[in-house]
Amino acid sequence: MDKQTNQKPSLKNGGNNRKVRFNIYWVYGLLLLVFLYLQFSGGGFGGPRSFDTTWHAVDKMIKQDDVAKILVVNNAFAEVYIKTESVYQKPEYEKLRNADGHTNSSYYVYKFLTIEDFQKKLEQAQQEAKMADTVGKSPLQKQQIMQTPVVEPEPVVRKSFWEDGGFSMLLWILFSVLMMVMIFRMFNRGPMGGGAGSVFSFGKSKAQLYDKDTRVNVTFKDVAGLDEAKEEIMEIVDFLKNPKRYTSLGGKIPKGALLVGPPGTGKTLLAKAVAGEAQVPFFSMSGSDFVEMFVGVGASRVRDLFRNAKEKAPCIIFIDEIDAIGRARGKNAFTGANDERENTLNQLLTEMDGFGSNSGVIILAATNRAEILDKALLRAGRFDRQISVDLPEMEERKAIFNVHLKPLKLAKDVDVVFLAKQTPGFSGADIANVCNEAALIAARRNKKEVEMKDFLDAVDRIVGGLERRSKIISPEEKKVIAYHEAGHASVSWMLRYANPLVKVTIVPRGKSLGAAWYLPEERQITTLEQMHDEMVATLGGRASEDVVFGRISTGALNDLEKVTKQAYAMVAYFGMNKEVGTLSYYDSTGEQEYSFGKPYSEKTSELIDKEVRKMIDSAYEEAKEILRMNRDKLDKLAHLLMDKEVMFREDVEAVFGPRPFSTEGAAEEMSPGEAGLEQPSDL
């Protein structure tokens, strides 16, 4: 026989050789059938049985005195029951016996035409039986025999199954079976037939497992702009791949690393890269997945997660947004003693550094609110490392742009370095959004390639919102808005430490009726003089309205809010006021969030308010003084803005001349479309 023939699958049973697996529903179905049989048969196995018969046979039974009783059912038929001794002794009644030879009260059924005819025949048969019994008897005995009935028929009224509540009973049976099936599926297989949805699965971990069969395609090559963070993360991956390299010197593998940084900086992306590079099982879940409305579910899921992780060790556990369960304990006074989040956190602390061994299990977590996490969670031995994932610098933004520009069809005028300079303060997610928005804008304009102008418009769209040229603005309002924005541009141009102006517009965008773009200087610390000049520039719009029109409007709401917060921070947090002194009432732990009192007295509070007001008034007067000294240039700039609606740095320079305090290299970096939007809305 040919070898290939031997390898062919068997065609028996249609080519399907799968074994039939046992199903518990078969047992339930069998029990249901037995129950229904017992209900409908009225007796079940080994119960009474009936046999049809004729009147000739009944007449013979009566004359032989074998009849025990006769039941007339519904005046329709008669049930003839035979005496027990006759069943035992006479062979013609053998079929009424059970298999073991005992009677089971089986009977014969005689169906008559009318009840009157049956009664007449029965009476005649009884008389003949009596006459036979009187042979050889004395007259007195004959009289007694003739007066005694042989069998007295008993009338019986029986209802059918459906008439006797059978339909209601059937409904009850079906309802009971349905409830049994639902309870079984809920407690064992889940509401949709899967174990993940069952009642007992509430305490199971919801972590998604990535292993060799379900690998993540993201690697460290896809993560740009996070060189320091990648270096530490890659070292953790190396711990798992080559543990002897570190343990041979007596060192221990870190138990956990906490990724901390603003939203959109790439914390979750780093974790995905770890999953793609580690080549070990990777458990991923969110902190909110531990929390349920049922008490004890969170702690149970933590136990189940670490139990599964120990079985898969070496492996990595990643908990995204860990602040959902890692918030400092005992800070919320409105929760009860049995706080579910605290129970979950306690269990997590125990699993991370308890008596049990978690060798080979490394925990990664991400949050942008590290200040509210419990101190016990941050101590060494649990999260040994805190990896800071900050907003990208210019070179890092350039690398991030290169990653997100790969799938786009770019024009030759797109300058990645220029884009990186135009987006200070943008996170990786913001840059990805800029690239996507630029592609959408280019497609909306029916372009074949994405041009530089599309990227600049995308930055404006993301920062300021969509242009609303259809918004109806009266000429008087337009004039007020123009002088407001011209005031910002004029004051910022004349101040040394104010952010350089890039673009001014009075075209409504988003909620704002006008906006100004600046090029913020990338710095790590800010001096008192720098903050003061920023306040003066921010108040330039309100000062311009006051100087030109002699009245003010609601358009400076955003400016006043920004300045007030900045002034309070300078006085109460940064210690930049001589009267209050070098004191800081800033709470980095977040404990004051749950307290009703202030960390200073009422007298100090009054002093802070007084100094803040003095600081803002001084900045406001300085802004008005600058505008009064340059009133002719302010008017020229405002009228130019009303005509063109959009002005760039070159237009302001043409009116005011070169900026007196321009820093070296700032001119090359300034261009349209920069971030740092100031939105004087609510006009």
UniProtKB/TrEMBL annotation:
GO terms for cellular component: plasma membrane. The chain crosses the membrane at residues 20-40, 165-184. Residues 659-683 are annotated as: Disordered. It holds the Pfam family AAA_lid_3. It is a multi-pass membrane protein. InterPro entries: AAA+_ATPase (IPR003593), AAA_lid_3 (IPR041569), ATP-dep_Zn_Metalloprotease (IPR050928), ATPase_AAA_core (IPR003959), ATPase_AAA_CS (IPR003960), FtsH (IPR005936), P-loop_NTPase (IPR027417), Peptidase_M41 (IPR000642). Keywords: ATP-binding, Cell membrane, Hydrolase, Membrane, Metal-binding, Metalloprotease, Nucleotide-binding, Protease, Transmembrane, Transmembrane helix, Zinc. ATP binds at G261, P262, P263, G264, T265, G266, K267, T268. It is found in: Cell membrane; Membrane. Binds 1 zinc ion per subunit. It comes from the Bacteria. Its cofactor is Zn(2+). Its EC number is 3.4.24.-. GO terms for biological process: protein catabolic process; proteolysis. It is an enzyme of class 3 (hydrolase). GO terms for molecular function: ATP binding; ATP hydrolysis activity; ATP-dependent peptidase activity; metalloendopeptidase activity; zinc ion binding. The active site is at E485. Zn(2+) binds at H484, H488, D559. In the N-terminal section; belongs to the AAA ATPase family. In the central section; belongs to the AAA ATPase family. Acts as a processive, ATP-dependent zinc metallopeptidase for both cytoplasmic and membrane proteins. Plays a role in the quality control of integral membrane proteins. Homohexamer. This is ATP-dependent zinc metalloprotease FtsH. It comes from Candidatus Pullibacteroides excrementavium.
